[in-house]
Design brief:
Elements (H helix, E strand, L loop, with lengths): L9 E9 L4 E8 L9 E7 L6 E7 L4 H7 L5 E8 L2 E8 L7 E8 L7 E9 L11 E4 L6 E6 L5 E6 L13 E4 L10 E9 L4 E8 L7 E7 L26 E2 L12 E12 L2 E10 L2 E14 L5 E3 L19 E7 L12 E5 L4 E4 L2 E8 L4 E6 L2 E12 L4 E10 L4 E6 L15
Antiparallel strand pairs: 1-2, 2-3, 3-4, 5-6, 6-7, 7-8, 9-10, 10-11, 11-12, 13-14, 14-15, 15-16, 17-18, 18-19, 19-20, 21-22, 21-28, 22-23, 23-24, 24-25, 25-26, 26-27, 27-28
Length: about 425
């Protein structure tokens, strides 16, 4: 999803489906001066996850006790959960780079508000071991109890138990650590936590965002059979292990990329996740390559591989079917993006790839083979000494304005791969490079 009206200036989007109204809602940080009908927390709604309308802000004024502690003028990163007939909105009150922060709770009897202040869930100061921002309320499947996942930088990501009746924490302290990175600079940041349970795999998935939100932001994931962790990645590495290389922990799901000069996306991060009858989706914000000041709403289909790990489409969702792609539709020329763990570029550049009818594949100057299971929609590509498992998806090529096929997945070393099939004749002079 990309909209010049409904999604523009969206930041830190949290997705929520309301069973009563049958609307999808996103709640996010205000980043544009035109949204001035409240203090913060953009609310948008949609019937189809493609066309969104802005309907107002969640918080109309900063509560007195929040103002006294933080002296903020707006709020950040709201997220919502419904408990009984009550809608509970958790939001951050802070200033950039500060640890003097509050997570507030506001409640309403409908998802569009008005939301009324109930209390402060977490308050941190420069003496605290964590930062009270980026709240995500989550319900434990086994017990039905509620928790708050939150945190950024300093003490990483934490988990606090909530009182079911009030929605406020009922334990002392700041909770247990779920994930963290060494805080040497902004480049080892971790924030924007979001936990979602997959009933088919039996795992809780902890999504977090790494690095600077203005440039090389990217989403990583770990999983656990228990809500309280430990969360490990595809290599069995714990997300709270500080002894490992900072960029080599967590399965990387997004990257900055460009399929046509000047039209790419960078800093894809601070995500939420939605499970629907039409499949799974990742919702995040991204910045335009040609104007990084502007963030916009990105909604991308998400799939799970045979090992239960997610992968995200390289193309924005535009209402496509989730039916498997026929084999003959896969044959053709693609633009391919290979993920890099130690990011040095804002937008990874594509290399040409071709899937041939005889089962051979060529990517840049490497050759190999591919096979396809038309029942599951998964390809196996053997090339450059690596075995890749890629899911074929119906997609829309925004740069070439047409229906196409997208591939997403990873190789046997856990490095992500994206590819988008051309709808037009490939441009002359497309950059060629070897695999990193």
């Amino acid at each position: 999803m990309e909209s010049k009206d409904g999604g523009l200036f969206s930041h830190d989007p949290a997705i929520f489906y309301d069973e009563k109204s049958k609307y999808y809602y996103t709640y996010g940080t205000d980043t544009a001066p035109r949204f001035r009908d409240g203090i913060g927390g953009q609310i948008r709604r949609s019937k189809d996850l493609v066309h969104f309308e802005y309907i107002g802000t969640a918080v109309r004024e900063i509560p007195k006790e929040v103002k006294e502690l933080t002296n903020v003028r707006n709020i950040w990163a709201p997220d919502i959960i419904k408990v009984g007939e009550e809608y509970r909105l958790y939001y951050s009150a802070s200033t950039f780079g500060s640890q003097n922060s509050v997570i507030g709770l506001a409640v309403a009897d409908n998802p569009e508000g008005p939301f009324e202040h109930r209390g402060i869930a977490v308050h941190t100061t420069p003496d605290s071991p964590v930062n009270a921002i980026d709240a995500n309320p989550v319900r434990e499947e086994e017990t039905g109890e509620y928790y708050l996942v939150y945190g950024s930088f300093w003490g990483g990501i934490r988990l606090l138990h909530l009182d079911a009746k009030t929605g406020l924490p009922d334990e002392e302290g700041y909770g247990r650590v779920l994930a963290c990175r060494p805080r040497k600079s902004c480049d080892t940041a971790i924030e924007g936590p979001y936990i979602h349970y997959n009933r088919e795999t039996g795992y809780y998935y902890l999504f977090v965002s790494y690095d600077s939100l203005t440039n090389v932001y990217n989403v990583r994931v770990g999983r656990s059979k228990k809500l309280e962790g430990p969360y490990v990645d595809h290599n069995g590495r714990r997300l709270d292990d500080l002894s490992l290389p900072a960029n080599h922990v967590g399965l990387k799901l997004t990257t900055g990329y460009s399929l046509k000069k000047g039209t790419g996306f960078m800093a894809l991060g601070h995500n939420s996740v939605l499970e629907t009858e039409n499949g799974w989706f990742m919702v995040c914000h991204a910045r335009y390559e040609n104007d990084p000041r502007i963030s916009t709403l990105n909604i991308r289909r998400m799939v799970f591989d045979e090992d239960g790990w997610p992968a995200v489409s390289p193309c924005l969702y535009a209402g496509e079917t989730q039916e498997t792609v026929p084999r003959d539709k896969l044959i053709g020329s693609y633009q391919r993006i290979d993920f890099v763990l130690d990011v040095k570029r804002l937008c990874e550049q594509p290399i040409p790839m071709e899937l041939k009818a005889d089962g051979s594949v060529k990517a840049a100057d490497l050759t190999g083979s591919w096979s396809y299971d038309e029942e599951t929609g998964w390809l196996e590509v053997i090339i450059g000494g690596a075995v890749e498992k890629l899911r074929a998806l119906h997609a829309t090529h925004r740069e070439e304005c047409g229906s196409t096929v997208a591939l997403t997945g990873r190789n046997d070393a856990g490095i992500g791969v994206w590819a988008v099939k051309h709808t037009k004749k490939p441009e002359q002079g497309l950059a060629v490079k070897r695999f990193a």
